[in-house]
Amino acid sequence: MPEDVYMLIQNKYRDLQKQAKEASDRKIAILYHDHPQLKSITDEISSLSGELIKLTLKRQPQSQIDELKTRIDELKALRQQYITDNNVDMSAFVPQYLCPECNDTGKLPNGTRCSCFSDHYAQIKFGTADMSILRRENFESFDLNVFPEKAPNGTPQREQMAHLKSAMEDYCNTYPEVAKKNILISGKTGTGKSFLLNCIAKALSDRGIPVIRLSAYKMINELFSKYIDDSTDFDAELERICETEVLMIDDLGTELMKENFTHNTLYYILDRRAELAKATVISTNLNVKQLEDKYSDRIMSRLFNTRTTNAIQLSGADIRLRR
């Protein structure tokens, strides 16, 4: 693994641990504000424990050490009694890590690498959405006024986008507890498809959910290059794409058709992700008829599975001309 990618992953883990610790500290501060007596007992235990260490290191008489231990035990019992009597929720003292398996360290107790490491690796290696773009294109910067109130064909374009924005925000806020994990957004150029993908990517990433965002062209091109080189990385990188929590494919239909490779690989990705119950969010300029002409029935059955996919058709004017 390139050193820079490894360092980025380690920095990611340090940031996640710091966030979990800071969140825990805030909860503890609130708890102690509500229970000052508990804080007083805890502080005294901490102080006496420090004193006990000093006495032990200085080889003070055992009687003094035993006396201090007894006092600490009494305070611990008093603390536990207070917790029980007042029904204090002590979960604040346990940081809530994004990955409970490794506590955001990347390593399991047995020393092996945690599966979340692969998620972070894939997100860094394959995530092509520049963070500067996501800082510009997100739900906070979503300006409905760039959409005309009505499209030339009479479609209430602004109202349509307002409803869609609200629905996509709900999706991001409640994921993975959503009725349908997959989203297929189709529409002509300039109707806001890529912008929506960036909004979703930013919102999910902010919640710590692993997201890989790729153009269909780049995804197929890079995989094909490794495939023809007979690279040992091909299988590993294909699986990382399949196994990441959320895969976003922008501009489906722009990828080059490389004999049977493109269809077979695309089907494998969609089928494997369906098997793993992972979310796939896709944008395309093609309509249903064009998709049918371009792709096999197997791929179409995965794209338009009504049990798992919300298919959204955007219509209206090209907002890039208005901008």
Explain what you see.
The chain has 13 helices and five strands. The protein has 323 residues and is of the alpha/beta class. It has a five-stranded parallel beta sheet with strand order 2-3-4-1-5, with helices on both faces. The two termini are 43 Å apart.
In short:
This protein is α/β, with parallel strands linked by helices. The chain has helices at about 5-35, 35-55, 60-85, 115-125, 130-135, 155-175, 195-205, 215-230, 235-245, 260-275, 290-295, 295-305, 320; strands at about 180-185, 210-215, 245-250, 280-285, 310-315.
| Beta fraction | 5-15%
Count of helical regions? 13
- The CATH homologous superfamily of the largest domain corresponds to P-loop containing nucleotide triphosphate hydrolases
Number of strands: 5
Order of helices and strands: HHHHHHEHEHHEHEHHEH
Class from helix and strand fractions: alpha/beta
Overall body shape:
elongated
Helix content: 55-70%
